[in-house]
Amino acid sequence: MKLKFYVILSFIGFVVLLFVGLLAEGEVSLYTIVCSLLFPVACMMLCPLDHENSRYYLAFASGLLAVSLLCMMLKFAGGVPLAVLVVCASDCVLRSRRKFSKVRNLFRSNEVWNNVEDYSHLMMELLFFLLTFLVFMASTLEGTLSIVVLFVLIILLSVLYWIMFRRKSASKSYFIGKKKEKLIKSIANSNLRDPQDFEESENNRRMNMLYKKALDNMSEKKPYLDDTFNLEDFARTLYTNKVYLSRTINAFSGRNFRQFTNYFRVRYSIELMKKDPLLKIEEVALMSGFHTVVSYNMSFKLFMDETPSEWMRQYKRSL
Predict the structure, then answer these.
(1) 164 touches 40 (CB < 8 A)
(2) What one-character DSSP code corresponds to residue 211?
(3) Which helix (H) or strand (E) holds 232?
């Protein structure tokens, strides 16, 4: 919904800027077209990501359109790239402040993909910043060189607009491969990694097989439901030693044994609550293998970014 609104705003803004430029100058020059094209690309840059608040960026986009229209009416098309540069700089500052205002959030599993999106957006914004600066400098060129440069800028800005649109509509970064994106999104959703996500080597193959056996055992036998379940018992079940098993789980899941175990317990507790929403949190915790409600709440918060009670309230609302 947010993306659709910004696409419409970018199209309307582009057409209005061209029309105002035509009225002010009596013709639509190539430079006016390039300056007008800066606004829709800026709109895509200002379109908030899924995890961002939209009101600040809407204010930026509205302000940029107003200033750009004023520049066109005053026959000062060169003021548009200057306004865009100011807005881009302000956007970078605002996003950086938001990003690092709560340092603890950076280390949550659900923030992994958000971080990728933020850094990808920053790279796109730096590229746009460079193109906008070139647009401003193009006003000093004359003759054939000016025409060639402006045509190249129109192509580059159009391509950048399309990339930004596709990046936000398809939730892609365009800076890392599909396999890496899949892995990161899996981690962001608090899922465990797949064994095939690792490079092939003799040691990795052995660890891969052990990790797969561990996952199968946890899924089928559910040993984690026993609150006395420990690493030594699990290693004995899988016919290996606890040091090698611990290293395997850490390397492949990105978690230590306790977190690995609690991941399955939290997932199991969610299934319990879905089957019987009337269960008390204390009952769910004990049935899922946790020693105490406190440890259950902490683990649930770690993986789901909300408490069991908050999750339950939302789930009941959705029924």
Answers:
(1) no
(2) H
(3) helix 231-237
Question: Is residue 198 within 8 Å of 252, Cβ to Cβ?
Answer: yes
Q: Please, how many CA atoms are within 13 Å of residue 174, restricted to the half-sphere of its CB?
A: 17
SS3 label, residue 56: helix
Structural contact between residues 273 and 311, judged by C-beta atoms closer than 8 angstroms: yes
Q: Residue 239: left (phi > 0), alpha (psi -120 to 50), or beta?
A: left
pLDDT digits (tens, 9 = 90+) for 126-184: 899 899 999 988 888 888 888 899 999 999 999 999 988 888 777 676 666 666 666 55
| AA letter at 252 | F
Tell me the torsion sign for CA atoms 180, 184, 186, 192: positive
Handedness of CA 63, 68, 71, 76 (dihedral sign): positive
Residue type, 306: E
Check: CB of residue 14 under 8 Å from CB of residue 36: yes
pTM for this entry: 0.59
Q: Which pLDDT tens digit goes with each residue over 107-116?
A: 555 566 667 7
> What letter would DSSP give residue 74?
T
The encoded tokens of residue 173 equal 């970064």
The pLDDT tens digits for 199-236 are 555 567 888 889 889 999 998 999 999 989 999 999 99
Contact (Cβ atoms closer than 8 angstroms) between residue 198 and residue 208 = yes
Residues 6+ apart with CB under 8 A from 284: 269, 272, 273, 296, 308
Q: How far apart are CA 267 and CA 254, in angstroms?
A: 17
Instruction: List the Cα angle 188/46/79 in 5-degree steps.
Output: 155
Least confident stretch, 70-74, 96-100, 242-246: 96-100
Structural domains present in the chain: 2-182 (no CATH), 195-318 (1.10.10.60)
